[in-house]
Amino acid sequence: MFSREHILSAFSAAVPIMLGYVAIGLPCGILGNTIGLNPLQVALLSILLYSGAGQFMIPNMFLAGSSVAAITASVSLVNTRQMLYAASFAPQCAESPRWLAALFAASVTDESYGVNTARFAEGNWSVDRALMVNLFSQSSWTISNIVGCAVGAAVDIPVPIAAFAMTAIFICLLVTQKFTSANIVAMIVAMLGVYLCKAFGLTGPAILIGAVAGVVCALAFSALFPRKKGGLGSAPTEGEAQAGCRASSSSGPRGSAPTEGGAQAGATPVGGDLGRPSTSEDSSPDEGGERR
Hints:
- This protein is an all-alpha fold and 292 residues long.
- The chain has helices spanning 4-34, 39-48, 52-63, 68-78, 81-88, 98-106, 110-122, 127-154, 159-175, 181-199, 206-224, 238-251, 260-266, 280-283.
- The chain has 14 helices and no strands.
- The longest helix has 31 residues, at 4-34.
- The termini are far apart.
């Protein structure tokens, strides 16, 4: 556990994530500086909260005048997906120490989840290496936020430019989703909900209300219009029908002439004839119905 080989393999797997976190960690730190956070506070936020979307939401909602309760609820709702990510690794963590499994589950993110899932599927991957992938990624995120906060204090960067990074992250999350009917319903309802809330002056809880409305409508849509799946009594698919036709044509009805494949199968020699190749004369019946 935590051997040199494991550390090197985990670092190699985490490099793409670390580079990506630099690109979004810098504007996140700059945005944190706009609401008065110093580098130490940004570092603690990155270590204890460690939520890219959440850390972008906090300054944006604060600048929009949202209450602490609305910010807390919105960030908590966005981060609920992390519980599902962590729960999916339960089989891999079954034989690991509890402290190791708990630390690994607490540091899972969208990107590290994808990398570790692929590595576990390939085999020869362990929980300690998966944890190191998470920690390497978190270190890159934390350092990038600290540097961004320091740059924001030294250079005057317009807030709208830094704030757009949050919008860019959600756009990336959106385009990487599978465009099912339920996801499309959630997307449309959420955008409409946020727009209507801001139109009626509810700027603070607009994101929370839109997100909840989108999730509820998507769940209702899935319940009312479930996806069709093959089951008992359901009509066979085209592939199943073709497979059944081929099976029927190859077997033939009882009493019918054997097919070419059946005749060849029946021509397999047994007993003392194992060493002698069979011929068509060996297996063809004569006119009296007996084999020669």
